Amino acid sequence: MANSRERGYALLIVLWVMVLLSAIGIHVAATGRTEANIAFNLVRNAKAQAMADAGIYRAIYASIDPQSPQAWAADGAPHELSLPDGTDTVWIEDENGKINPNQAPPELLAALLRELGLKPDSASRLATAIGIWVTPDDGTRRPGTVEADYRAADLNYLPPGEPVETVDELSRVLGMTPEILAAMRPYLSVFANSSVPDPSVAPPLVRRAIADVPSLGAQGDTDQGTNSMAARMLSITAVARTTTGATFVRHAVVEVDGQGGTQNYLVHAWKREDLPQR
Questions:
Q1: Which pLDDT value is given to residue 269?
Q2: In whole angstroms, what is the distance from residue 169 CA to residue 99 CA?
Q3: Domain extents in the chain
Q4: Strand order in the sheet with 265-272
Q5: What is this structure's pTM?
Q6: Label partner for 169 (CA 20 to 30 A): which of 84, 150, 189, 247?
Q7: Mind listing the pLDDT tens digit for each residue in 157-188?
Q8: Domain spanning 106-222: which CATH class is it, in words?
Q9: Checking phi first, is residue 51 left (phi over 0); if not, alpha (psi -120 to 50) or beta?
């Protein structure tokens, strides 16, 4: 009887050991598959990123000499590139066709907001609030008025009175909403080098906004026919898609010197973005 119990205990121990070894084996196999999948995803995402970066540099090369027959125009048209591991879609836009919120007169910002669907009074108030946010107080504001307005809106901060470095900083402006900022974003640029966009490279909505402000008409006309050999500020977006299903979006703002000689370029912004809606 004692031998039978001992054999039973031994069998139980053997069964538990087998179960334990099976669990260890399953865990090792699962861990190996997980790590293999992680490595695969890292490789394909790295390929997509490299392809997107290559698309940006290809666009820079195609923009250095605007007089070349192979030059790409900064008109927002897509350029499709076939690569060994997938495809690149690249767009180039001229930043000087956009409105710089740090420099634009409030009348132009208000006109843009009206074009985007805001009522005239709301557009004027928000344009004024943007101007207050990006401009130092010149002494013409009534003391405490701005602070009272922000406190009344239950905001625990005040306008810095200095230029913004990114368009996203405008989200904190009194009266701004995520929806309004999303609608404005394609038409704004902190890299534009003029208070009034160049109509010759501006999107149609920006041209209409300029036309809505009669006092800007003459200045806009003088900007027509921008010197194609002058330094240009370009916004470049590249969307890379690999044959394995990975997608990577790279956005860059690049200043291109088209004066000849070494034909340098300077990168002002370089970041990953979400898939653009076009």
A1: 93
A2: 15
A3: 1-99+229-278, 106-222
A4: 79-83, 86-94, 232-242, 247-256, 265-272
A5: 0.76
A6: 247
A7: 999 999 999 999 999 999 999 999 999 999 99
A8: mainly alpha
A9: alpha
